[in-house]
Specification:
single chain; about 260 residues; alpha+beta; Butyryl-CoA Dehydrogenase, subunit A, domain 3; 5-stranded antiparallel sheet; about 65% helix; pH-response_reg_palI/RIM9; transmembrane; transmembrane helix; membrane
Amino acid sequence: MSKVIHIIVTVLILASLILQILALLGNFNGLRSVYIARLELTNPPSSGGFFDDLLDKATNTISDSLPDYFTLALFIACEGKSTNETVCTPPAFGYHYNTTGILQTVQNQIPDWVHRALTGIQGGVFIPSAIFCFILLCYNLYHQVSGHRAKHSYGCCRKIMIFLVSAIAFLFCLATFIIQIVIYNMLKSGVNKVKSSLFGGLIDDVVIIDTKTGPSIWMSLAAFICLFFVTVLLCVSVCCIGGGRSRRTGEEGNSYEMNRV
């Protein structure tokens, strides 16, 4: 039973690591569909009539100069057309990038303190989260191999160490999910404020802006759920099963000594 649990734990850690790496590489080539949030810009429906035709012409003129969508990932922002024309910023900490068009205009509007905060979050939470998950995977494999070769129960220090590593990896992964939810809500709130302030709230008559969650958020959710089950299974495997094996080993040793006598 312990061996089965160890296999499940290894698979869950590996799955969490892969999901976190995919989230880190969102909007890179080949992973354009992995992002935190997506802003879709569409034309409002027309009800016909002379004035509506004039509004449609003005709307079409504006929409021709705007992309159909924006996507925001951890290190890259992209804009694209429905014709599969996609322009992305270079990957950068804090979204400090040099590009052209609307993306550069958006970057120029970001305050310096936001750039610094984003840099700290990217380098201090998301990257360490993947690193700790990788360390947990390596230590778990070492934990299994060394325990199998030694054929004795795990020591107290080793138990504490693997619990500590798993707890740190879980907390970092949970933080990545929470941060992405906060970023999405802040982006959605900011878009709604802009919509209400432009043209007296009549911006929806010109262009409809819809904010949607991206796969990166749900990948982080699945990743920290995997690590949660890892922590629980490690507790069962190391404390309960390991303790039972230790007692059985001691009983067998006592029986052997008594038989010798």
